[in-house]
């Protein structure tokens, strides 16, 4: 009987607007200082993956443009006359194809090195 009276008196002493807020799951399993670090690492990983995807898209577009330009030049090369002027013209078109190929290959290699650098950085995380 005394226990019930003590309990009832305890209830009357507590204010009615007190609410019990259980700790969040992350607070139960992790230290509070680890959560922002994990979130930051996850955000960095997402950013790196996004950047890698963007660079791969740029690389594919460059390769496509290069292939289109070279195909156009090769098709025009087929229309050369079978004489000295035609041979000179074919030679100049061949040199132009080589220049276009070199230009795009340089740009593509630069993108490849950026992709490799970001991929290594992503694997380190």
Describe the structure.
It is built from four helices and no strands. The protein has 125 residues and is an all-alpha fold. Helix 3 packs antiparallel against helix 4 (84-124). The radius of gyration is 34 Å and the shape is rod-shaped. Mean pLDDT is 81; it is low at 1-18.
Comma- or semicolon-separated keywords:
4 helices, about 0% strand, about 120 residues, mainly alpha
- Residue-averaged pLDDT, rounded? 81
What amount of the residues lies in strands? under 5%
Low-confidence stretches: 1-18
Please give the share of residues in helix: over 70%
The general outline is: rod-shaped
Please compute the radius of gyration using only Cα atoms. Answer: 34 Å
**In whole angstroms, how far apart are the ends?**
62 Å
Topology:
Blueprint: H1 2-13, H2 25-29, H3 34-77, H4 84-124
Helix pairs in contact: 3-4
Give me a quick take on this structure:
With 125 residues, the chain is mainly alpha-helical.
